[in-house]
Amino acid sequence: MKLHENKFQLLSYRLNKSATLGEFPFASEVFSYTTGSGVQLMPDLDVRDLGVQMSADGSWSKHISTIVRKASLLCGWIFSVFRDRTPDVMMQLFKSLVRPILEYCCLVWNPSKASDIKAIENVQRCFTRRLDGMQGHDY
Q1: Distance CA 9, CA 6 (A)
Q2: How many angstroms separate the CA atoms of 52 and 103, rounded?
Q3: How far apart are CA 55 and CA 64, in angstroms?
Q4: Where are the alpha helices (H) located in the chain, listed in sequence order?
């Protein structure tokens, strides 16, 4: 099977980020990859694969900020489109539309930084706060 080599991306994880590794004769093999037909792939800082954003530094902050942004926009869309603001309906909408965005492949990118965890939790916190603020209104 012939693969389209220009569609490949290279992601290199390094534990030791010292510059001395680049001085060794095999450094080009570590920092790039040459395919069988001679196409040279240079490492990228971020790679998206199956909807998960991976970073060369091993952090998941960029992926988490992306899903938090998508989920927050979807929460705003829910409040602008649906007129029925009963808690049962709104929580069902949150669970069926927003949570899958926040939880997709969470076993892979399990957050460890407190700021990332707080950002994810803030989506639900903002949604429920908006919902609680509307309890006294007749719609």
Answers
A1: 8
A2: 11
A3: 11
A4: 27-31, 61-81, 87-93, 99-103, 114-133
CA distances from 46 to 37, 54, 80 (A): 25, 6, 34
Query: Hey, what are 40's tokens?
Result: 């040279």
Per-residue 3-state assignment (H helix, E strand, C coil) for 19-46:
HHHHHCCCHHHHHCEECCCCCEECECCE
In this structure, what token pair is assigned to residue 87?
Answer: 């808690």
Q: Which long-range contacts (CB under 8 A, 24 or more apart) does 50-55 make?
A: 50/105, 51/104, 51/105, 52/104, 52/105, 52/108, 52/109, 54/11
Dump pLDDT digits (tens) for 15-59.
555 555 555 555 555 567 676 677 676 677 777 878 888 887 778
> How many residues are given for the chain?
139
CA–CA distance, 72 with 53 (Å, rounded to integer): 18
- Residue 68 pLDDT exceeds 90: yes
